[in-house]
Design brief:
This protein is α+β, with helices and mostly antiparallel strands. The protein has one domain. 42% of the residues lie in helices and 22% in strands. It contains 4 helices and 9 strands. It has a 5-stranded antiparallel β-sheet with strand order 3-7-6-5-4. Strand 6 and strand 7 form a beta hairpin. The protein is elongated and about 70 Å long. The structure holds zinc ion (ZN). Zinc ion (ZN) binds next to loops. The site of zinc ion has 8 residues, from loops.
Length: 149
């Protein structure tokens, strides 16, 4: 075991843990192969994470789409979960008044631990009104205002 004074001077490879004997004091790896191995694994885990998120969103989207096609806009959460829906994967969360609305791409809805409700599909087509470009968000706010008018 190294004592305190040794620990200050001795660096350990982030990949294999071996003592790094040569090079700058801030060197992180004992060799090129350790450095490559570490970076490859990091990249793979990032790619894996992104893939899992994309798959979860795609699965949620397919489930929402199938209910939407059937004209169902209100589903109990346990039913959705049994189909593989994961409520923690959405593409956006908006505060609308005191409520929170969620989106999974172009599906917009509310969800609690009990149910998903008011499932609607928004238009992704951006319209022009005169010279002014209307953003998707503007359309959504307009739509919301209308529904409360
Ligand atoms: Zn190493």
């Amino acid at each position: 075991m190294a004592n305190k004074t040794d620990e200050k001077e001795v660096c350990h490879c982030m990949e294999c843990g071996d003592t790094i004997r040569y090079g700058r004091a801030d060197k992180k790896f004992c060799s090129e192969s350790c450095k490559n191995r570490w970076h490859n694994r990091e990249e793979k885990s990032t790619r894996g994470y992104r893939l899992r998120v994309r798959n979860a969103l795609a699965r949620n989207y397919d489930i929402l789409a199938s209910f939407y096609r059937q004209g169902i806009d209100n589903v109990e959460m346990p039913v959705l979960k049994a189909l593989g829906y994961d409520p923690s994967f959405v593409t956006s969360i908006m505060h609308v008044g005191k409520r929170i609305e969620y989106m999974c791409y172009d599906f917009r809805f509310r969800q609690t631990s009990l149910r998903l409700s008011r499932l609607t599909k928004i238009s992704l087509v951006v319209h022009r009104s005169g010279e002014k470009n209307v953003s998707l968000l503007d359309l959504m706010i307009d739509d919301h205002d209308k529904s409360f008018a």
